[in-house]
Amino acid sequence: MMNQLSTSTSPYLLQHANNPVHWQEWSEEAFAESRLRDVPIFLSVGYSACHWCHVMAHESFEDQEVADLINANFVAIKLDREERPDIDAVYMKATLALTGQGGWPMTVFMDHDGKPFFAGTYFPKTSRGGMPGFTEVLSALSEAWNERRDDIETAGSRVVEAMQQRGSYTSDGLPSDVVLEQAVSRLQVDFDERNGGFGNAPKFPPSMILEFLLREAARTRSSRALLMAERTMEAMGRGGMYDQLAGGFSRYSVDPTWTVPHFEKMLYDNALLLRVYLHWYRLTGSNFAERIVRETAEFIIRDLSTPEGGFASALDADTEGVEGKFYVWTAQEIIDVLGEVDGQWTVELLNVTEAGTFEHGYSVLQLLDGPDDALRWSRMRERLLNSRKSRVAPGRDDKIVAAWNGMAIAALAEAGALLDEPTWVESAIIAADLLIAIHLGPNGDDRLCRTSRDGKPGTNSGVLDDYGSVAEGFLALFQVTGDDEWLALSGMLLDVAIQHFSDGNGGFFDTPDDAPALVQRPQDPSDNAEPSGWFAVANAALTYSALTGLVEYREIAERALDVVGGLGARAPRACGWGLAALSAFVDGPIEIAIIGDFADPATAILRTVALATTAPGAVIAVGEPGSEVPLLRDRPLLGGQSAAYVCRAFTCQQPTVDPFELATQIGVRSGE
Question: Where do the Spermatogenesis-associated protein 20-like TRX domain residues begin and end (predicted)?
Fold first, then answer.
């Protein structure tokens, strides 16, 4: 056998294509080889922007001694967790069961049937700091496989049994707004009043929880919810986790103050946060929020767009083998670029210290206070950014992930419409066109493939969050453009999710019913760094129902949200997207139909007012009389003028041609 990764479509796997390890991709052939050779399987899981994945690769997988041990005694499978989140979820659950902690790189050893008997995360090549060396682990496990096979098989069976003992994911019925109030109260217990965010370090951006809090602030005028959301977003946007020069957020902060990030930039984080900051701006008119929206949108389009029209998955944390090297500065480096006077002013503004806020005297740039001279800061920022371009840029994982592009499409479409930036909407349309052309139906059916690269679809089938998040993106495009093709496509994707992923009890599995079997079919409603597929489908189904009037999709969303009753009050941080959907469900959501010619200024004014509504999950449709879009059907002009029709929870208000009356009906921030 030889290393077989050179033909992969995954940039992460291609990083390992020249390793002396005889890597294979996950396949039945790899399992067949393990049976034929009677050796266990070594599964290594990571992703391209993972710092410690790079470290372990350099220390062990590029090392001939380690490779010889692996090749002689194991079948080695390398997996990109972003391509196969289903497999990653199953074996992360096993890793947590075996060790009590998880993360990447994930290191799993399993038998011929995929039953894990040993797991961990990063291992150094040789023992240090209380961690066993990887060479020792390999030797010990090979010896145990050959001499104590019965013990290993028993251990693997016990792990699988433990994984299959899951709790109930349903409740007695749809939770009420009482659960939403309890969730806000529980979040307040975990809230870091000093620094923003929830819990201790490391701190991940709580994107879905922030969306829920903003919806509750709009729905109930909750000052508690708004305070938690604003303080968190202010701290994240001013700290080192936000790139103060080029825009865009890093994956998480290693400390409680949002000062030092883990420098990788993920598409899903930036898409979710773009939308959350947009909704903060829409609710309050915050100039700071608007700035973050504009810079983050430009970052996504400028730095993550691919030649094919989609958005790349991530930018690496490392450059030249050093984490954060591209982003950090010393005071002297800034002064060298800007000169003594401007440089010293900027050093103080960006909290760059002599000792450094990062490592080795370097500082992460922060903008803890607004500059006293905004124009001066704009000039300094541009000069520093131009200087930074001469540095070696972080590597880019340029594969297209369907779900993450769906999130970006929704965020850019909505932000472009609200802030009158048509190029953002156009970028969203181009990305959506790519998903249709490359990801939808590569095998001649109505299925999504999860990833593509260089315009070629990958071999991995879409999982539940691909269907939910892409449907969400298409629904946003319909509401912004009025093109009913996006509405039809979103309905088709939801139908596939309902038909092939449903568990029959109102919930969803993460993989379709015709997917190759794993030791456990993954199912988990809780959010992680991105919305769970379960809640993504619930949100999209609720929106689709409101736009089409098809009550059966509302009922599907309702049943899927049953689980929020159990999670919401007890562990709200695990179900932010479900709580956000429940907030919209309880509020209606509001349905706004605007009848008129898109080019008519009167229609445009009504549409602008509609886009500014702060009502949770509000839906908007714009079209001419006679439209076949259900929300617009049988609704005429009023006295020959463009008109708005507003309904909520199966009850409609008096139609109006007056933008001020429309603003009153739907709830628009004062001054809009």
Answer: 3-163
